[in-house]
Amino acid sequence: MKTKLILIGFLVLVLLAIPLTIFILQQQTQTAQHAAPSTNISLSTTQQQLTVGQNFQVNVNIDPGSNQISFVKLNISYDKTKIATAGAGITPNQSLNLQTLEGPTYTNCSGNTCYISVAYGIAANKANAISSADTLATINFTAVASTTDTGSTTVGFGNGNQAYSLAPTDQPTQNAIVNTQSLQLTINDVASPTPAEATDTPTPATVTDTPTPEQTSGGGTNGGGENTTPTTVASNSSLLCNSLTADNTSSPSAPFTVNFTVIGSDTTSNVNQVTLNFGDGSTQDLTSGGGIGTGSINAQISHTYPNTGIFTSSAILTDDTGATSDSSSCTQVITIGTNQPTNSPTPTLSGTPLTAMNTGPGSTFLILGGIGSIITIIGAAILFGL
């Protein structure tokens, strides 16, 4: 009887030890297979000292560390009172062979802070996974106002930035980003000419009407002719429209609302009017706000395009002498519902992005299960044989 009790206790211990051993091995295997997130995303530019009206680029850099990045979602923030997107906006690094899966969108703003949102992926090609440090994308900006009041302006990251890795040692649904680094920019006012430079400013052109023979004959009014007065045409070489930018320049459909920003300066007079020609047959004059009435303007205006087409918008500045800026110096092309880039079908994001299959410790469980079964059978045979 004593021997049977000992065997029964032995079998109970074996049956308890098998699942406990499996659990411990499973935890150890998961710890070994799931590498820690190690991806860093940062912003950089070679033009940290800027001037109002200057176009510049900001690079979005990615360093995956030990990860192999297959999907990245960005939410980049900036102060719209200091800088604005320009030209092509944000564009991916073509050498990485990434597909644009979402966006980009530029119209999400809260107060003075606006966000650029976009998602890139490698689709079904695992060979395109990002496994070394590189430039992920480039953002085109223009400086719209100086930072003398704030010291600098920040291009940073909002909420929702994500990166997923397909490395076999990474968890497929874990955000691989461990750190983001923002960028500080300093924007200076447009330099005013020095007194020496001011003396070199061309004087207004003078156009003199050529007297007709009848006006010159007789030598003056008593001779039957007329004395003519020279006619002066107003001109101002210091009146400049520096840039016309838009928060977005293309849309697949109409109606489409575009927010324009006009930057200009006049070092000898004041700008008292900005005329916007939107290219669709409509124009609008701005006579207040945005620095109008001073020598430096940064004016914003919105326009909704009701129809599709390609429209070339332009801005003309008028100063208090009646002089106007060159109409060709500030233009922007808006494309709506036509000549849009033709992309291959965008993969639908369902569930998690592309990840590698984890093999798991299945063979270990089978071996342990077999050993446990053999021990159980042997123990039962000994028990009933006694």
Question: Radius of gyration from the CA trace?
Answer: 36 Å
Q: Span from first to last CA?
A: 9 Å
The major sheet is characterized as: 7 strands, mixed
Order of helices and strands: HEEEEEEEEEEEEHEHEEEEEEEEEH
- What fraction of residues sit in β-strands? 35-45%
Mean pLDDT: 78
Question: Explain this structure to me?
Answer:
It contains four helices and 22 strands. The relative contact order is 0.16. The longest helix has 32 residues. It starts with a helix and ends with a helix. With 386 residues, it is of the alpha+beta class. Strands 2, 4, 6, 7, 9, 10 and 12 form a seven-stranded mixed sheet that branches. Helix 1 packs antiparallel against helix 4. Among the domains are: 150 residues, Immunoglobulin-like (Sandwich), CATH 2.60.40.680; 98 residues, Immunoglobulins (Immunoglobulin-like, Sandwich). The protein is elongated.
Write the layout of secondary structure elements.
Blueprint: H1 2-33, E1 39-44, E2 49-51, E3 55-63, E4 69-79, E5 83-92, E6 99-110, E7 113-121, E8 134-143, E9 153-157, E10 162-165, E11 177-181, E12 183-188, H2 195-199, E13 206-207, H3 213-216, E14 231-232, E15 239-246, E16 250-251, E17 256-266, E18 271-277, E19 283-286, E20 296-305, E21 309-319, E22 331-336, H4 362-385
Helix pairs in contact: 1-4
Brief sketch in words of this structure:
This protein is 17% helix and 40% strand. The chain is α+β, with helices and mostly antiparallel strands and 386 residues long. Among the domains are: 39-188, Sandwich (Immunoglobulin-like); 239-336, Immunoglobulin-like (Sandwich), CATH 2.60.40.10.
